[in-house]
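re: ur question from yesterday

yeah so i grabbed the chain u mentioned. its 322 aa long if i counted rite. heres the sequnce exactly as i have it in my notes:
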Amino acid sequence: MKILITGGGGFIGQALARKLLQNSANRLVLTDKIDFALPPGLPNLENADLIQADLLEDTDGVVTSDLEVVFILHGIMSSGAEANFDLGFQVNFDATRKLLDSIKNTAPGIRVIYASSIAVYGRPFPERITEDVFLAPEGSYGVQKVMCEALINEYTRRGFIDGFSVRLPGIVVRPGLPAQAASSFLSGIIRDPLAGKRCLVPTMERSKEFWVCSPKVLVLNLIDVMSLPRHALPLHKRGLNLPGSLVTIQQMRDSLEMVGGRDKLDLIEEVEDAEFAQLVSSWPANFDVSLALGLGLRQAEGFDKAAEEYVQSLEYSKVETC
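ran it thru and got these structure tokens back, copy pasting raw so excuse formatting
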């Protein structure tokens, strides 16, 4: 199966590629605007082609007639999209529309999986959020995601693609440097103290709940969406909330103590940021994901498990570099 992954240099793109390459029948094309590479030593690495390309400028060589699946993962995340209005719309919407048009013209009807976000929702929130809740984002990033979801719906209804928009929870724990996402501290609470670095948490409300998922479960669910029947959802309603789990800042602190020791808590600095508090209040948390689970997707594990998996990944990396 030939699979295209946009945003292939990003964390989720790389994690997805690693999993897909375990199947020698898969051939991957990964593209990103930046120069990037896959980690050496991956199985079937010869099955992956890497293309540095700006999707706003050119999709030639990226979209080919033999493609069977496309994962649209590229984009500027929440804080970056809010800080630069024009750039956010160019990357998150304009490039996505150009890509979809290229698919429509070159490889019509193929499965397209678009990475959307729970940022498509806005207040007031019902007690439980389902796919039937009206989409009313409170930020530019969410608006861009809603616009792309509308394209996925329309292009699927018209038969140009066979698409699904999957709304991602906060993904934790992300390795590396903090991302341009307002929620990046959710990973930082574990990642930074374990590396001996301070983590700034922009709220002192430890009981605030967040909707999160581990990279491992996210990747498995993305792959499962590849094989969903075309009529699993109505052709004009292709949005699907992916499973996550609820966690508070206090519970994240407890997880850090569990995997790193009590002394690591001293590296967390909590401050009250009024602008951030306003943003946090616009984030939905309590989701009903019975639709996704009914389609066979996997339930997210708790934050403790995500923290443990991150520690295991660090230990694996040390072995690999020895």
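noticed a couple things. Residues 312 and 318 are 10 Å apart (CA to CA). also The mean pLDDT is 93.
anyway ttyl
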